[in-house]
Amino acid sequence: MQDILLLHRHSHKVFSGIVDQSLVWKTCLRQIAFLPEGSDLPWEEGDEIYSGAEAFAFLLEIICGLKSPIVGETEIFGQFKNFTSKALESKNAMTLQLRGFFQSLIQMAKSLRTEHLVGLGSQGYGSLVRKLSKNDPAVTLLGSGQLVEEILPWLSKEKALQVVCRHPEKAQRFKEKYSTLKIDSLDGTPELYACLVVAAPLTDEELLRWLNSHQASHPVGKILDLRGELERPELFHEYQFIGLKDVFRNIEENKKDLSQRVITLKDLVRQRAQDYFERCLHRPFGWEDLCV
Alpha helices, DSSP H only, in 137-189? Predict the structure, then answer.
């Protein structure tokens, strides 16, 4: 597996010079470009580069939720599966060569999660949002992705719910399970509930601008921000604002046990990555000959 490089960036600043954007995986906290070895890397200060077994182990830690603010969360695994599925649909040469690599990552992540991460459900986003909104009779969820899909079951039996997103048609799938769910457009002027869960990749400025456009008629009082790192907290001083750092404090009582489990699992991830590379068959025709 000497043929791949991962370029990791801790921000949403677009990679310059990468023609095939189908091979850039973006999450709330990071973006990762998959590049052939020998590429002219468009890296900037703060970027990280991984190759070989280190690249495999790095990705495995991410999709197992070991680099997430809430350890073991499942949403990132779903995001990776969606990314690989869409990338493979493009059927270009490199993505087809990566098929075995992606499949091995997914299979290994499933195994590791089953063996070592079962029982961490109480630390998932859904349970924490339910806890932090326990006194709120209604909740607005901003976004329509897998994070919203993960949260909805935890709130649906207790609260009135609303999903606001850029493409309301994509959120219609939620109606199959939650018939009373309100779905509104981000570009419209829906009546918002007082508790807002932010699960969409907006900048601080975009979020504040959107909130200000609704505050006169439909004021929001509490914000549960699941986007990642808050860059400009001073913008939200008028709100009861709970960010990921605040959310993470809710699981401090389990931190010692959790930390040891993470250390053990990271060691296992590195060993599994090394084992995978040692059993790969390196042939001159490329990655399609890898033994999966």
Answer: 146-155
Confidence of residue 164 (pLDDT cuts 50, 70, 90): very high
pLDDT digits (tens, 9 = 90+) for 206-234: 999 999 888 766 789 999 998 876 778 88
Contact residues for 156 (Cβ-Cβ < 8 A; gap 6+): 177, 178, 181
* 3 state SS of 9: strand
Rounded Cα gap, residues 68 and 64, in angstroms = 9
Q: How far apart are CA 102 and CA 115, in angstroms?
A: 20
Whole-prediction pTM value? 0.59
Collect all residues with Cβ–Cβ distance below 8 Å to 197 and sequence separation of at least 6. 129, 133, 139, 140, 141, 142, 148, 151, 224, 226
Q: How do residues 252-277 score in pLDDT, each as one tens digit?
A: 555 556 667 778 888 888 888 888 87
Partners of residue 4 on adjacent β-strands: 36
How far is residue 36 CA from its own chain's centroid?
24
Name which residue leads in pLDDT, 173 or 90: 173
Neighbours of 85 (CB within 10 A): 10
Please say if the pLDDT value at position 51 is more than 60: yes
- One-letter identity of residue 216: A
Q: What is the pLDDT of residue 123?
A: 58
Report the half-sphere exposure of 168 (CA within 13 A, side-chain side). 12
- How far, CA to CA in Å, does 23 sit from each of 34, 36, 108, 130? 6, 11, 21, 35
Name residues whose C-beta falls within 8 Å of residue 65's C-beta, 6 or more positions apart in sequence: 71, 72, 73, 74, 76, 77, 113, 117
Q: What sign does the dihedral 108-114-117-121 (CA atoms) show?
A: positive
The string over 9-47, giving b where at least 16 C-beta atoms fall within 10 Å of a residue's C-beta and e elsewhere, is: beeeeebeebeeebbbbbbbbbbbbbbeeeeeeeeeeeb
